[in-house]
Every structure is written in C-alpha cells, then in structure tokens.
Amino acid sequence: MELYDKIHENEELKTYILAGNRVLGELGFTEHGLAHAGTVSKMSREILEILNYSDHECELAAVAGYMHDIGNMINRCDHAQSGGILAFNILRSLDINPKDIALIVGAIGHHDEKTAAPVSPIAAALILADKSDVRRSRVRNREPATFDIHDRVNFSVNDTALELDAAAKTLTLR
Q1: Residue 107, Ramachandran bin (φ over 0: left; ψ between -120 and 50: alpha; else beta)
Q2: Mean pLDDT: which of 52-66, 124-138, 157-171 is highest?
Q3: What are phi and psi of 79, to 5 degrees?
Q4: What does each C-alpha distance from 50 to 1, 13, 45, 92, 140 come to in angstroms?
C-alpha cells in the first residue's frame, strides 16, 4: 500500500480533518473538510507532476495536501504549526521514513498565509494548491454583509482551474 493510500484511508486523520472543519464552521470560516483536503492533495500532486518531480515527491505533496489543515481542530491561530506536530505523530505511528516525515511536516508548517514559505518544492506546491482552492461551494456564511475576505473571494467564483505552464514558468488561476 502506498503512503498516500495509508493516509487517505486513516480514520484517525479523517476524524481530525472533520473536527477542524467543524471548529471552523462554528467560527464562520469557509469549508476546510474532506473536500478541501482532497482538492488540495490532488492539486499539490499535479503541480509537481507537471514540473517533472519524481513520483515519490509528488506523493509526498499529495500527503501534505491532504493533511495540511488538521491543526484547525486545535485552533485557527497557528494551525499550520500545530498541524505539523499532529501530522508528525500520525506519520510516525505509521512507521513512515523520517526524511519523508520531515518534508511533509515542513510543508504543512509553512503553508499558512501569515507564515508561508516555500521551504521545499513540496511546500511550494502545497501553498499554491491551498490558495488556489477557490469556489463558491466552500462558503458557509450566506449573509454577504458579514463576509470576510475569504468569503468574498470564494463566493465570487463558481469554479476554478489552475493552469501551469512549466516551459513558460507561469501559473494561472482561471
């Protein structure tokens, strides 16, 4: 079984993703549940695939993308750092290679807009994928007068597509 399959099927991890999504729902934030985790995972992998990274690095990006928001179950503030710690413990319990754990946890810990840093190709792909998951269906708050910046952006978009042209070194969000 590949690493991504182990992660995707892990009930503990699903519980944490759903718990974080519930917390953010109570706070009025956009959807950060399994749909967001799956989209960011898929996009993180695809970004590195298009740029011809190894299959292994692409898989690590998919894992980081799926796990990246688990820290929201603790608190939205510093969720990237707490998520990295939670991810470390889950990955370690699954006997994952320490070098892979370090790359995944580093990407998760650096994905938040306040502290984002592309410390590795995996982290860069995660940041791009996370910020590119923009769609109206993520908005829970249906009162436009109370929208925050995330609600306004997401509500204005029915669907998006991320287009990466490796030769031209361009990334376009459509």
Answers
A1: alpha
A2: 52-66
A3: -65, -25
A4: 24, 28, 9, 29, 33
Query: Residue 70 corresponds to which amino acid?
Result: I
State the first-to-last Cα distance of the chain, in angstroms, to the nearest integer: 35
CB 48 within 8 A of CB 162: no
Q: Report which of 128, 113, 135, 119 is spatially closest to residue 48, judged by C-alpha positions.
A: 128
Q: Are 82 and 108 in contact (CB under 8 A)?
A: no
Query: Is residue 99 within a helix (H) or strand (E), and if so which, with residue range?
Result: helix 98-109
Q: Tens digits of per-residue pLDDT, 35-53?
A: 999 999 999 999 999 999 9
Tens-digit pLDDT profile for residues 49-75: 999 999 999 999 999 999 999 999 999
Stated pTM of the model:
0.92
